[in-house]
């Protein structure tokens, strides 16, 4: 079965925005998705990410192994929507993956990028 | 000898044969290669042994064998390939299978996960059997760009596993519009003023009509498919009157209606008469009905504007695009005068850069005797008119107003 990463993008959750109730609603929505997709055996894994203030971007200069390690504060790209978490889904084809992605709460709070997982042949 | 028959077969049946091969090989690239190899065999064989009785079926048989050879040669051990081998060696496909195959290909090409541009290019490449060079030429992009667009789309279908199937009935409302709009976009690209007089424009319009006919054959119970075909036929019927012998664009009011293609107009009308009573009306049927009312009027003055206005009001409620709203404003103007037309135009949002919005507004203002305001609007239209034909037309209007 093909695997897809469902990357959850949404507005950065800045400190002080959103109420306790908002947070509780979102959590309940995610629990609902976890129950539904979990029961269907679609979820292979997934995590929520800490906000982008805690992100560090790492790159090795020189275009080859052994170059200087350059670290910068923050995410790779400064955009309005940030990667907030992801699921690893197993679905029969893209249509099924889209069907499940559309049930992730991030789809209505932001958007979901569905990317096929690269399969390596041994 | 033999070569024109092969070209004809590929043009008419190539898409169908390819669709079946894709189902069997589950790989657009492999299916295309097999069909290509079969065509090379046909080139030699048909010349010496004559054209077979069923050339399409002949091509499919040979292409199946070629696909099979390759799969056996390359990867016979994998279970996935064993399945393809089974499909390729199975008996002849039923007509029902072939219909399903052709529809699957159409829905795969028009999958919403592909961009509009990719959908169109892929449909023309696979279903219409146009070469990449031909498609690049009609869309005025360099061949490598078009080649890349098509190969990216095929790669996405393969890697992301866009399924090769006809959507279930309950999915159709979401999926059919993309198929209809892809075909209609092919048509309107050909119909655009800058192209309509050229061969590439005609080629695209005819290809879109052919695809529309195919879709009606494949989905006879979908009224909007019939609506789309009727719309294209009726617009194409008026095509010969659109450009005068001096090469200038003719407004509907000034066209020589004797030049219109009555056969196409009649067919468009018959299709509508068959489908409108089903009472499952949609945007394509409404646009077709409006177009047919224009085509049916023996002279411009006999146009049934009140009915056209009513149809635009309905269309506006289903498809409130600026194009529909401006057309509705024109119909309101014809029925109730320029003040009412202007009122509708004032509700159209964000039309700063669309020449037809401004030229329509200018016309209403000039009818109301507001000469200065009309001139200003015509000048705005002129500034954003996309091609020489439009600019020439607008220049005439401006000069006429200036007197």
Explain what you see:
The complex is a heterodimer of chains A (122) and B (403). Chain A is 26% helix and 34% strand. Chain A is an alpha+beta fold. In chain A, a hairpin with an 8-residue loop joins strand 3 (56-60) and strand 4 (69-73). With 403 residues, chain B is mainly α. The A-B interface holds A 2, 92-95, 98, 114, 116 and B 111, 113, 159-163.
List the main descriptive attributes of the protein structure presented here.
heterodimer; A: 122 residues; alpha+beta; Alpha-Beta Plaits; 4-stranded antiparallel sheet; two-stranded antiparallel sheet; 3 helices; flat; B: 403 residues; mainly alpha; Rna Polymerase Sigma Factor, Chain: A; 73% helix; elongated
What topology does this entry show?
The complex is a heterodimer of chains A (122) and B (403).
Chain A: E1 3-11, H1 20-39, E2 43-48, E3 56-60, E4 69-73, E5 81-90, H2 94-101, H3 106-109, E6 111-116
Antiparallel strand pairs in A: 1-5, 1-6, 2-5, 3-4
Chain B: H1 3-25, H2 28-49, H3 55-75, H4 79-89, H5 95-109, H6 116-126, H7 132-138, H8 143-159, H9 172-191, H10 193-196, H11 199-218, H12 223-238, H13 262-275, H14 283-296, H15 305-318, H16 322-336, H17 338-346, H18 355-367, H19 371-384, H20 388-402
